[in-house]
Amino acid sequence: MGFAFALLMPIGVFLIRLTSFKGLVWVHAGIQIFAYLAALAAFGLGAWMATVTGQWVPSNGHPIIGTIVIGLLVLQPFLGYIHHLIYVREHKPTLWIYSHIWYGRALILVAVINAGLGLQLSGNTVKGEIAYGVIAGVMFLLYLAVLAFSYMKKDNRHEGETDQAMLEDPKRENSDEERRIAPPANS
Question: Fewer CB near the last or first residue (10 Å), C or N of the chain?
Fold first, then answer.
């Protein structure tokens, strides 16, 4: 599960924050759904192991926290899709984008910490725990750098559904599709 939350999901976030291309939203959604399915598979293995070993309620709470995170994560794609539908209609950020972003950030943070608890519970080696901690720490620092970069580049303006305009040339002419879905300049 640590692989899904400490590597795959941040990669989906990096992609949406740093790139801009047609269909980006759907590539982001695909990566995040794949990561969720990987986490769900890991959850299934963990649930089976907890049942076989009788460790559903260990001293560190890993199975309980993991069950809650997996359950809560079911809402995330729906928040993203609702945001997308509203954005296509209104062409501006709404409460839905912020709920999708902050809900996702909170779940990823709790899940990454919980994966560390899972390593302790499994009796992993100290070297394994250190390796996971280093990978998770590096991804967290990269995540902070990506956020800082994206906010500096766009001067805190929200442009586009995924804020993708931050890397685009402001003098660039809009594509036919962008002109078709963009609201008139006089409105």
Answer: C
